[in-house]
């Protein structure tokens, strides 16, 4: 099947007819409207209905007919094949790809793997958890190169852009 993207996590049931409440793991929640099938717990299932409720998505999924059925899917991920994702513009990356990257500074010092990407109003931030927690603002003068193919991100040395506490 190839690489899969997690686009949501089932967090609860919704109603008595087997609908599930999904926490979206994508900024493009409209994507759920276009889906015909998804993988739930590794099994392909048809999407029978999509609704939106505040910052959550309500899905009616094939084979989930009751609240009891829906209950068994809590905490499971909604996934789609990577092939279903559109090509991105230059210098734009999928978080899943960034999370496979190791960050180095220009002195070739390894700083750690991207644990997550935090969205802020001004710019994204790469979050490194280990070996030492580090938050890296995604700005052109700090992040110098991102190479998804080699799973490598090059940044300016931390001392040049971060104040020491």
From TrEMBL:
One of its GO terms (molecular function) is ribosome binding. It is found in: Cytoplasm. Pfam families: PRC (PF05239), RimM (PF01782). GO terms for cellular component: cytoplasm; ribosome. Keywords: Chaperone, Cytoplasm, Ribosome biogenesis, rRNA processing. It comes from the Bacteria. Residues 91-161 form the PRC-barrel domain. Residues 7-83 form the RimM N-terminal domain. GO terms for biological process: ribosomal small subunit biogenesis; rRNA processing. InterPro entries: PRC-brl_dom, PRC_barrel-like_sf, RimM, RimM_N, RimM_N_sf, Transl_B-barrel_sf. NCBIfam families: 16S_RimM. The PRC barrel domain binds ribosomal protein uS19. An accessory protein needed during the final step in the assembly of 30S ribosomal subunit, possibly for assembly of the head region. Essential for efficient processing of 16S rRNA. May be needed both before and after RbfA during the maturation of 16S rRNA. It has affinity for free ribosomal 30S subunits but not for 70S ribosomes. HAMAP family: Ribosome_mat_RimM (MF_00014). Binds ribosomal protein uS19. This is Ribosome maturation factor RimM.
